[in-house]
Amino acid sequence: MPTTAKIIAIGNSAGIILPKETLVRLNVKKGDTLYITEGPQGIRLLLFDKEFAAQMEAAREVMRENRDVLQRLAE
Q1: Angle CA(68)–CA(63)–CA(50) in degrees, nearest 5?
Q2: 6-74 has which fold?
Q3: Burial (Cβ within 10 Å: 0-12, 13-18, ≥19) of residue 35
Q4: What percent of the chain stands above pLDDT 70?
Q5: Mind listing the pLDDT tens digit for each residue in 40-73?
Q6: Which residues lie below 8 Å from residue 2, measured CB to CB, with a gap of 6+?
Q7: CA distances (Å), origin 74, targets 22, 62, 68, 70
Q8: Where do the domains of the chain lie?
Q9: How far lies 20's CA from each of 6, 24, 26, in Å?
Q10: What's the whole-number average pLDDT of the chain?
Q11: Residue 1 confidence (pLDDT) above 90
């Protein structure tokens, strides 16, 4: 079910207030770090996982190094 979140000012930055139900669904609490990913279905919030972050960085490196090949495959 869709829910809303409010963006607030935090110093010179901005923050999002997540409803309690969303925190429960994400299995996160105050102070946890979230990983933000973007894909065809939109933006996803995931509990930060060092192993997943390392895998994502490795994937970005491969995509950077093989940009031309991946572009040809996409055609």
Answers
A1: 175
A2: Pemi-like Protein 1; Chain: D (2.10.260)
A3: middle
A4: 99
A5: 999 988 888 888 889 989 999 999 999 888 888 8
A6: none
A7: 36, 15, 10, 6
A8: 6-74
A9: 13, 6, 10
A10: 89
A11: no
Residue spans of alpha helices (H) in the chain: 20-26, 50-65, 67-74
Distances (CA, A) of 32 to 14, 42, 44, 48, 74: 17, 22, 16, 8, 37
Q: Which amino acid is at 1?
A: M
Task: Give Rg (Cα) of the chain.
Answer: 17
Structure confidence at residue 9 (pLDDT): 96
**Cα–Cα dist 30/43, whole Å:** 20
Query: Could you tell me the maximum CA-CA distance found in the chain, to the nearest angstrom?
Result: 45
Give the 3-state secondary structure of residue 67: helix
Q: What is the mean pLDDT of residues 1-5?
A: 80
